[in-house]
Design the sequence.
């Protein structure tokens, strides 16, 4: 912070006149400065895409310029953002800083995200995306897939199971703290093996994704442990999620790429339930929450009353968190693929229960904030909803 303040003072000689000029010419040309947090893919992707959509809807005499902050988590996505938005150097942060500091400049500073990286209005689902790959990027990616034995036209699923490895790479106390407070989001890859084996037995390729993961998987037919592949790259990190037939995730951030490219999603072992991604074509199946003292599972109202984003908050509330069983993950995966193929038929009871869930969920006071627009194919898992019994609703 001290370094930032010193640099801001040193750059005030040109940044302050720039701020004054921007405000003077606003009746003729409206200039805005935006900053994109590029350090985490779960913010970098939705925030950049959101600004691209809003740019297409704005007044033609409005000019938006952006800069990245927080490091670059993926060079390929940074390139694609450059192709869609006016990205300038870090020097823009001094204009942003002084404009923010001097009263009256709020109109000229864009927020990182208008929606806290969620898209509750469904802008991304309802608009045509413009983040296309270049021909050479497609060629390189297809060649990599074929080198693994994949053949053109064969379906493939991206599987992203969050564990502690990515944050373990931080040597600082911040990394340890983040791991502790986000451990409720982690899952064991072993519990996904029956679902993986079922998918591959159906002729579907499974790509276990991850920038850095704890445990490799044993090699089997049509399974690619991309997280441990020597040829993985920032290009493939984006391209595979964008071109898969579906994404199975624990809600980690990279699944936003699949959502942006309108791929079906299955969220398993995902929390909290109140923040399920209703703006996507998705199925949401959360972990089990149980009251520590009584051993009773939380019902829907209790899930919504205890909407926490830190492990310590669940502990303090006396709530135990249990991962889904391998059988539950398998059932959710079979429903997911059946819906993709159009072979899944809901029973009358399943349809009724799903409607009851959304009616109850929609009456929650926080619903308008997070779920103003709901994708018509958004739902919770049928088997999961049935297993929770009548008392859950």
Sequence:
């Amino acid at each position: 912070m001290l370094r930032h303040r010193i640099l801001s003072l040193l750059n005030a000689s040109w940044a302050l006149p720039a701020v004054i000029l921007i405000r003077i010419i606003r009746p003729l040309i409206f200039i805005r400065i935006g900053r994109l947090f590029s350090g985490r893919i779960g913010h970098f992707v939705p925030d950049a895409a959101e600004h691209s959509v809003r740019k297409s809807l704005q007044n033609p005499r409005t000019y938006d310029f952006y800069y990245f902050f927080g490091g670059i988590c993926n060079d390929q996505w940074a390139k694609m953002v450059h192709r869609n938005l006016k990205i300038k150097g870090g020097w823009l942060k001094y204009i942003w800083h002084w404009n923010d500091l001097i009263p009256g400049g709020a109109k000229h500073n864009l927020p990182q995200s208008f929606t806290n990286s969620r898209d509750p209005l469904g802008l991304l689902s309802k608009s045509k995306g413009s983040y296309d790959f270049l021909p050479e990027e497609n060629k390189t990616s297809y060649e990599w897939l074929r080198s693994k034995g994949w053949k053109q036209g064969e379906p493939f699923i991206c599987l992203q199971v969050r564990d502690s490895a990515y944050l373990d790479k931080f040597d600082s106390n911040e990394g340890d703290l983040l791991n502790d407070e986000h451990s409720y989001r982690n899952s064991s890859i072993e519990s996904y093996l029956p679902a993986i084996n079922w998918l591959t037995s159906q002729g579907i390729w499974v790509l276990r994704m991850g920038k850095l993961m704890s445990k490799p998987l044993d090699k089997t037919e049509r399974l690619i442990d991309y997280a441990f592949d020597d040829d993985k790259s920032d290009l493939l990190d984006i391209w595979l999620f964008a071109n898969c037939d579906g994404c199975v995730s624990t809600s980690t951030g990279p699944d936003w790429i699949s959502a942006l490219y309108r791929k079906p999603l299955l969220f398993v072992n995902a929390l909290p339930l109140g923040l399920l991604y209703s703006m996507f074509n998705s199925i949401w199946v959360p972990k089990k929450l149980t009251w520590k003292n009584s051993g009773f599972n939380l019902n829907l109202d209790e899930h919504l009353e205890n909407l926490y984003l830190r492990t310590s908050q669940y502990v303090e509330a006396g709530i135990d968190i249990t991962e889904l069983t391998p059988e539950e993950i398998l059932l959710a995966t079979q429903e997911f693929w059946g819906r993709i193929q159009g072979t899944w038929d809901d029973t009358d009871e399943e349809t009724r229960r799903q409607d009851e869930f959304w009616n109850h969920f929609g009456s929650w006071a926080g619903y308008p904030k997070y779920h103003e627009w709901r994708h018509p194919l958004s739902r919770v898992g049928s088997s999961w909803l049935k297993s929770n019994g009548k008392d859950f609703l």
User: Anything to note?
Assistant: The chain has 18 helices and twelve strands. The longest strand covers residues 30-37. The two ends are 48 Å apart (CA to CA). The mean pLDDT is 93.
